[in-house]
Amino acid sequence: MNAGYSIRWAAEHGLPRLGFLALRGVGDPFARLLSGDEGYDDPYSLIDQLRGAGGVQLTPFGYAAFDYELCREILRDRRFGVRVPIDPAVPLLLRRYAERVVLPPNPIEAPSMFAQDPPEHGRLRKSVASAFTPRAVSRLGDQVREVIAELLDAMAARGSADLIADFAAQVPIALIAEMMGFPAADRPLFQRWGYAVAPLLDVGVSWQTHRHAMAATAAMKDYLAAHIEKLRREPGDDIFSLLVSTSDQTDDELLSSASLLLGAGFINTTNLIGNAVPLLLSHAGQLDLLRLEPERWPLAIEELLRFDPPIQMTVRRVLEPVEFDGGVPLEPGKSVLVSLAGANRDPVKFPDPTRFDVTRPNAGDHLSFGTGIHGCLGAYLARLEALHALPALFERFPDIRLDGEPTRRPLSTLHGYAHMPARLKSR
Ligand code: HEM
């Protein structure tokens, strides 16, 4: 393992982790929300405590915003960027050294568009955006239906399933792998890498988790580099072939873009579908309404996204001095946590926000796909997949029952289940 990785871990995770553990020990709600050990199961009561008086707050780990309008404004304001600095509390020498360590191309580090400010961001996003427009995505409808029908048949034959591994994860991984021209046999690899890299969006992860993520990014890099070489020789009609042959992206940019599309295209949609199942089963009246009036599903998907968002938070860097009404002045160079889950539960925007209501008229205003220049590129694709997967699951297995408590993945940023055993009785 590259020695530089341990320096990066120490600066980005190791020292903040010590801070979390100390503050969590005295019950600090922010440390509890971010530590991933507690905040993942029911982050919402912690968020309500943290929302407090509103406005941007100064926390031991930077600024934080939980109100809808503030979060929306920060995400749309060019005075905030996405290249988030290592915490200034980390000793300068360690910070400087850590900033020079280059990790293998991965979804969340530059040159990934996710971590690039304009103008680089616009160039990278433009080269893939045409594959994700509503029109391009709507052409995938038949493919989505086919994938789902095969998965449901396989689950029906067994009579029981882990709804995450056997269904929620399989739908998006099949779609994104197909869109990008990867062989079906390699899908388990993408899942393994995706789950290994996911914790890197949190702060304060353990050395073991970080090492595992680095090993996955290195393996992913080798695999994707070989795939790019192959597509240069024999291009297919997938979006990645198009990207390799027509865009002006460097090899490192291509590797980051591919890993971002694979990662973002899989885990978040898995979590949307997975989070929806227990929520709908525990609101039987609302599920009955959707069965009777299936035209309500699109709004129901928005309410599912609002109520239990797959990405709970994101981070921005203050680029210029900013002062919002009623909050602390924001100093350049510091980071701001933007709580998407907090925005979605803001009572000013969503009356009675803790009520799950598939008929909520403004559910679609949620911030679960972010907003502004980094707003989710795959939002139409994710919606299309959920819109086919969920009605088909409940239609095929009207008596579906969870078999015990589903277990959450212990992450703070990406919010979803690891396992969800279920008993199925098909029509
Ligand atoms: C329910 C599923 C999904 C959710 C909740 C979700 C959520 C988000 C959010 C919140 C952001 C913005 C992050 C920020 O501003 O810091 C984002 C960005 C992004 N998402 Fe998604 N996403 C989902 C599915 C997908 C899919 C299926 C794809 C592609 C196949 C995708 C590709 C991307 C990309 C490329 C970005 C970065 C855009 C940029 O930086 O310009 N996402 N997503």
Automatic annotation (TrEMBL):
Domain of life: Bacteria
UniProt keywords, alphabetically: Heme, Iron, Metal-binding, Monooxygenase, Oxidoreductase
A Pfam family reported for this protein in Swiss-Prot or TrEMBL: p450
PROSITE patterns to which the protein is assigned, alphabetical: CYTOCHROME_P450 (PS00086)
GO terms under biological process: cholesterol catabolic process
Cofactor dependence: heme
Any one GO molecular-function label of the UniProt entry: heme binding
InterPro entries hit by this protein: Cyt_P450 (IPR001128), Cyt_P450_B (IPR002397), Cyt_P450_CS (IPR017972), Cyt_P450_sf (IPR036396)
Record family assignment: Belongs to the cytochrome P450 family.
Protein name in UniProt: Cytochrome P450
Source organism of this protein record: Nocardia stercoris
Lineage: Bacteria, Bacillati, Actinomycetota, Actinomycetes, Mycobacteriales
